[in-house]
């Protein structure tokens, strides 16, 4: 998973622009530094000077772009935890759900993702509301179900898919209830289709 | 929101004992102060001096008994979120599960419980492991299922009860996915029994 960090940029004091090659490289280096430090020491030990040192950038650049540590962690969480591709569209509900569940499982079970997820839930204690990447995952699920319904497939409701597929997957990760492996997600998808499409088990 | 703090105790420097009337009163006052302050301002704004002032006790007593703020919050979380009575034992699985689910729902959906739950998950970012009150709730569920099995009732596995009853209930609370009402928990119990006891829906 982790590649070697790139060499520090030649001019760390150069102003950071919002777009463009150098700016994107700084952003990527800072995000990578955050996830590495979280994986090593936990989110509570991360500081902006430590992140800047690891990324090889000037701390001032980090403060200017992200404001404070919570802003930086929120940005990293929304980038790392949000789906980075469109929802699967294979032509059948079962295959779409299996791919969605496996991608979600793989994305949220790395040590960095677990730590970011828990940290962002801790932040919710003072800033209530659904976290954006959850909303994005739920939106993907909604798209998959709507397409299946349009094709005329027996389709569970979104509430059922959230309660019986998304919830158990995240619950195990958030509360550290042991590993979540591909077989678990397959079983959840099969149970969802088996029990919530109005068909009697055969 | 803010009520006047009660008058300070007559002898704030009196040693705090682990048991007994005065010690229990101090403990209850401090716990109440923590939950009130969390409900008003969120867990991140709570400080030991603020808690002590609200509870009308000397901050030294709080530091001596709980060590630091995380120790205090962890104690309050484990007291407030743990089940405070034995699991229901009504003689039928469905009624036991309905009572367990409704008690759990009622316990974890107050604003203080939501905030404590999210805060303790945020702490997990650095201290992995199942939180004790989750383990206690899961243990209650296990007891209910074992009794039903001993009576010869068709009974879902513990994994199924955790995935399809406990997980959706907590997931909605933890991620703030809107209200969770008694009708939701009844539907989850009915679905669990309907789908995971080897009986075809009738």
Give the low-confidence spans of chain A. Answer: 1-18
Number of strands of chain A: 0
Coarse morphology of chain A: elongated
Major sheet attributes of chain A: none
Radius of gyration of chain A: 20 Å
Q: Quick one: which chains have the greatest interface? A: A-B, 39 and 40 residues
CATH fold group of the largest domain in chain A: Tetracycline Repressor, domain 2
Region (Disordered) (chains A, B): 1-20
InterPro entries (chains A, B): Homeodomain-like_sf, HTH-type_TetR-like_transc_reg, HTH_TetR, Tet_transcr_reg_TetR-rel_C_sf, TetR_C
DNA-binding region (chains A, B): 47-66
Pfam family, one (chains A, B): TetR_N
Write the layout of secondary structure elements.
The structure is a homodimer of 202-residue chains.
Chain A: H1 21-41, H2 48-55, H3 59-66, H4 69-81, H5 93-108, H6 111-124, H7 132-150, H8 158-174, H9 182-195
Helix pairs in contact in A: 1-2, 1-6, 2-3, 4-6, 5-7, 5-9, 7-8, 8-9
Notable characteristics:
homodimer; 202 residues; mainly alpha; Arc Repressor Mutant, subunit A; Tetracycline Repressor, domain 2; 2 domains; 9 helices; 64% helix; 0% strand; elongated; DNA-binding (chains A, B); transcription cis-regulatory region binding (chains A, B); TetR family transcriptional regulator (chains A, B)
